[in-house]
Design brief:
globular, binds 4'-deoxy-4'-aminopyridoxal-5'-phosphate
Length: 305
């Protein structure tokens, strides 16, 4: 799938034509997955471009590399400015996805990565609408387990980690469903390949804890806060596999997926195959917030211009 990339990218501190931003074939990250990335959304409301939770994304960006002593040789302010800058440079006037990433560069074949290993940083962007059908998608538990802290840190948003997501997605598609659900090393529900999961049971909003190897998603955090503000009982606890199919509602959260209802789980209809009331409320709240229609959450938006 070729992306409709914008004309300019940001590469090691400079704007460059996308087609001119190239790297050597010896780049360490290509061989060993030593790359860190973020996915950020910016929303065009007809007048302004609002970046959703930019500070949180930039913080996680740096933190991911720290697990592996991979250096991000730009300050948080420089990265934030570059994210805003790439939108300005490309004169973006539609909602878009922004992908900052850094990676170990020309570092030979050594597996001893240290803080002094050379790194490169880049940011690209492309127009982006819905990742999934917002009327709801089908999902199923796959046989591959989510990797855990027993092998590699699940909180590091690193290229190599996504092999687990890729193999889970392949199995889900072979099984004829839209999205995979991975169980953790104990057999409890962890998350989807690129999204966190929430279930609704008896008006309680429940999501797996980080100890179930779920990524500390920024959208997950937003939903927890919005839920609490709406006086919904929000609980982080382990979710058993069998609980999924007796849930009143299920939805996924993520920067790309936003809030996506799951209307069928392991071929069992959830809420008669329709998005539930809590899910719909969360979708509406999220849309209002990112479109700057809810003043209570404007601190989550950075106006690029
Ligand atoms: N889990 C995984 C594995 C992901 O890749 C993502 C996407 N970043 C998420 C959850 C959702 O995180 P966020 O809401 O921060 O995009």
């Amino acid at each position: 799938m070729k992306l409709p990339l914008s004309k300019y990218v940001w590469f090691d501190g400079k704007y460059s034509l996308t087609k001119k931003a190239t790297i050597p074939i010896t780049t360490h990250a290509i061989h060993y997955g030593t790359s860190i990335f973020e996915g950020i959304r910016a929303y065009w409301n007809g007048e302004n471009l609002n970046i959703f939770r930019l500070d949180e994304h930039v913080k996680r960006f740096r933190k991911s590399g720290q697990f592996y002593d991979i250096s991000l040789n730009f300050s948080d302010q420089e990265i934030s400015d570059a994210v805003i800058g790439i939108c300005k440079k490309n004169k973006i006037k539609e909602s878009c996805y922004i992908r900052p990433f850094y990676f170990v560069g020309d570092y030979g074949i050594s597996l001893h990565v240290t803080k002094s290993a050379p790194t490169n940083v880049a940011i690209f962007t492309f127009p982006f609408g819905d990742l999934f059908d917002k009327n709801g998608i089908t999902a199923g538990v796959v046989s591959w387990r989510k990797f855990s802290d027993m092998s590699t840190p699940p909180q590091a948003k690193m290229g190599g980690n996504y092999l687990n997501s890729i193999i889970a997605t392949q199995e889900a598609k072979r099984n004829g469903v839209d999205e995979a659900i991975l169980l953790d090393h104990n057999g409890n529900v962890s998350e989807a390949p690129g999204e966190n999961i929430f279930i609704v049971r008896n008006n309680q909003l429940i999501t797996p804890p980080l100890s179930s190897s779920a990524l500390e998603g920024i959208t997950r955090d937003a939903i927890i806060k919005i839920g609490k503000d709406l006086d919904i009982d929000v609980v982080e606890r382990e979710i058993t596999r069998s609980e999924l199919i007796i849930s009143d509602e299920i939805f996924l959260t993520g920067t790309a997926a936003e809030i996506t209802p799951i209307i069928s789980m392991d071929a069992v209809k959830i809420n008669d195959g329709k998005p539930g009331d809590v899910t719909k409320k969360m979708m509406q709240e999220y849309t209002n917030i990112v479109m700057r229609k809810n003043q209570d959450y404007v601190h989550w938006l950075t106006e690029a211009y």
